[in-house]
Fold FadR/GntR family transcriptional regulator.
Amino acid sequence: METKTLAHSTAEKLVQYIREQQLAPGAKIPTEYELARMLGVGRNTLREAVRMLASRNILEIRQGAGTFVCEKMGVSDDPLGFTLVSDRRRLTDELMEIRCIIEPSIAALAARNATEQELTELEQACAAVEQCIREGQDFTAADQVFHTIIARCTHNSVMSNLIPVITRGVSVYASETEQECVQTVRSHRRILQAIRLRHEADAQQAMLYHLLYNSYRRTKDSDSV
């Protein structure tokens, strides 16, 4: 029990160290020897603490390279348990409802807060989707990147925890519905343009239209089956 308690305490100290040093996702933390000396614990305790944080997606252990701050710090790959939902059609519909609630507001915040660098990244993501479409490739992954960058543009720290829900919603929708390529290109361009021009209301409206159109197509496709 004492070892477990000490390991938990060490894990908390390690998280505090990451915060204080403002280590960014992907940053390498000090060696095991350095951390053990810094935190005043034995190596076995430190290893247990690191394993705890790795299980929480705070740290990532790379064999032969060291230990790094996780790219998706504190966020699991499936935070809401979508993998185990058997009714995929219902999941798709309910995810689309959630996206219609939150993503238009995300787009409006992005229009207000995006930096020039982020706008450039968003434009590149939009172009990547279009390139996939032109080449007849699956554009699901590129579409996820587009929506993820919009969420990052809000500069809202809570939004980073919503990104997995957003991107998972994109992939579930894509797997259940034949995607409308032409409309996707048009909608993405409208969203991008509104964000670039800092038109918050237009960005919100463009995102809502994009999602409602997809929702309508989803319902129409289901009714025709």
